[in-house]
Amino acid sequence: EVQLVESGGGLVQPGGSLRLSCAASGFTFTNFPMNWVRQAPGKGLEWVASVNGESITTKYADFVKGRFAISRDNANNTLSLRMHSLRPEDTAVYYCAAGMSYWGKGTLVTVSS
Known about the structure:
Number of strands: 11
Number of helices: 0
Largest sheet: 7 strands, mixed
Shape: globular
Radius of gyration: 13 Å
């Protein structure tokens, strides 16, 4: 059974930092580029960042460049997203996705004072 389980969300003040994690199982992790996608309240899905299977290439949406860092640990089938300088507009449910085939249930990040 394919499973993607996100963790690490929570309430953080503007300017703060969080680290999200995603534990993957049930598929060959290295065969898939991994993505973080978010959905803000009342809005559609928004791609945030991706990393290829070999963990060589990373890509970011313009609105997170320089603030977020995606990484993966292929030995432990985990994906991470380090988020810094968080803004209220970063408030969203954050999903990890394998390719765009498999999705987790998400973890909520709330940026508010």
